[in-house]
């Protein structure tokens, strides 16, 4: 099978040890008649950990710059960690068997990096579409249910192995449209930042 040897995954870690002030309260969602309820910000919420696992290296500088900016912003709301795994190399025109084998090898790397006990969400075209408020609501629900971490996964350009999808607590689709693979990292980071901004009641989301 024409798969190259997988190199040791690179790992970048970001956290919220920045000189930024946390908001004293987080604002909930607009309820049935537009009323908003306030949730006291507990230490558990302040220390919520979000991990984004991606398969494939981000090469374009403009995508990397945008991704780094949203990672920096996320640090105001949570501990954030980016885990970048290498994509298995395949022939220029791989057949189904070769693609399946590559995804299986990537699945082994992904499973080894999944944070224990985290709410696990995979980004996949056949998943459920949510609004930005809907994503924020899911994150808030997990926090209120006692979760201390969430993990999101962006697979390689050929997708995600079915075994990993079955492990997920939630399958999320951004759209039925097709987007560049590397752009999805920026989009995911922006939506995570937007979700946390919604919970914090800032003016970023309009």
Provide the fold topology.
Layout (H helix, E strand, L loop, with lengths): L9 E4 L11 E6 L5 E5 L2 H4 L2 E7 L5 H14 L4 E7 L10 H18 L5 E11 L2 H13 L4 E6 L7 H6 L2 E4 L9 H18 L6
Parallel strand pairs: 4-5, 4-7, 6-7, 6-8
Antiparallel strand pairs: 1-5, 2-3
What would you note in describing this structure?
This protein is 35% helix and 24% strand. With 206 residues, it is α/β, with parallel strands linked by helices. It has a six-stranded mixed beta sheet with strand order 1-5-4-7-6-8, sandwiched between helices. A two-stranded antiparallel ribbon has the order 2-3. Helix 2 packs parallel to helix 6 (183-200) and helix 4 (132-144) crosses helix 6. The longest helix is centred in the middle third of the chain and has 18 residues, at 96-113. It starts with 9 loop residues before the first strand and ends in a 6-residue tail after the last helix.
């Amino acid at each position: 099978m024409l798969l190259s040897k997988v190199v040791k995954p690179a790992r970048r870690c970001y956290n919220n040890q920045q000189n930024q002030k946390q908001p004293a309260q987080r604002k909930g969602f607009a309820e049935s008649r537009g009323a908003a309820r306030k949730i006291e910000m507990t230490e558990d919420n302040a220390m919520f950990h979000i991990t984004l696992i991606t398969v494939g290296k981000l090469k374009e500088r403009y995508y990397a710059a945008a991704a780094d900016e949203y990672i920096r912003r996320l640090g105001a709301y949570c501990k954030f960690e980016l885990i970048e795994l290498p994509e298995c190399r395949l022939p220029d025109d791989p057949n189904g068997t070769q693609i399946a084998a590559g995804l299986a090898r990537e699945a082994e790397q992904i499973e080894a990096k999944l944070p224990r006990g985290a709410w696990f969400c995979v980004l996949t075209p056949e998943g459920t579409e949510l609004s930005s408020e809907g994503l924020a609501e899911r994150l808030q629900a997990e926090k209120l249910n006692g979760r201390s971490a969430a993990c999101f996964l962006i697979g390689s350009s050929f997708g995600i192995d079915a075994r990993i999808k079955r492990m997920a607590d939630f399958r999320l689709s951004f759209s039925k449209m097709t987007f560049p693979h590397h752009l999805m990292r920026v989009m995911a980071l922006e939506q995570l930042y937007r979700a946390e901004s919604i919970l914090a009641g800032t003016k970023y989301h309009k």
